[in-house]
Fold this sequence. Notes:
By secondary structure, the chain is mostly beta strands.
Amino acid sequence: xxxxxxxxxxxxxxxxxxxxxxxxxxxxxxxxxxxxxxxxxxxxxxxxxxxxxxxxxxxxxxxxxxxxxxxxxxxxxxxxxxxxxxxxxxxxxxxxxxxxxxxxxxxxxxxxxxxxxxxxxxxxxxxxxxxxxxxxxxxxxxxxxxxxxxxxxxxxxxxxxxxxxxxxxxxxxxxxxxxxxxxxxxxxxxxxxxxxxxxxxxxxxxxxxxxxxxxxxxxxxxxxxxxxxxxxxxxxxxxxxxxxxxxxxxxxxxxxxxxxxxxxxxxxxxxxxxxxxxxxxxxxxxxxxxxxxx
Length: 294
């Protein structure tokens, strides 16, 4: 969700680019042959867009100066539903982490050159790769991945090795997000628990806090850029908002009639104009002005 626009992925293989000012779709991008689109992300440095579909492809779109050109695509080989993760670091090249053909494997590549960087393969007992988040640390790029057995694994991308592992949930880890300022993350599962955890000075994952939900299942988690709140997209059709410091429940937003797939915060330059968007299986996008920075 970028300034003035929001991106909507659909089960019919299209990406809709919406103008938030007039609530109209400006562009419809068709590149996944009707297969569901499970992830979209903008590449801020080039005004490009990435979309990942269940057709086992990541498409790259040129949106510069109003264009909507499909420049090229990458074959992932993944038949799962783990979303890609993009890292744009000021001091290094843009990296893209992708789920691979082997269900537990992560492949990392340099986006511009499409050069492979590494493959990250965990202990087989972890099961299928479910979700991941790549971020920049002082030592270089790190990646936290959630697996089918409920474990989180912290990976050192540069050295192609795992740094630590944490059994965060009894059920598969469905989603996670990470706050680089606080070195703190949060994960959700198919169970009723949200779990927060930290990375200590020795790069070990440490359990911190947890909160019990009314109903099981979280599709996506998003920490707002100011580090004050975190939103959880629920399988029960609700969006739950928590204070990020202590995971204090703040609000339950009930609008959708079906599972909420995704939630995102805008990066509008005016704090009072920053919105939250939620997308649901009921084919609706809801926009919320909630706990605005003012």
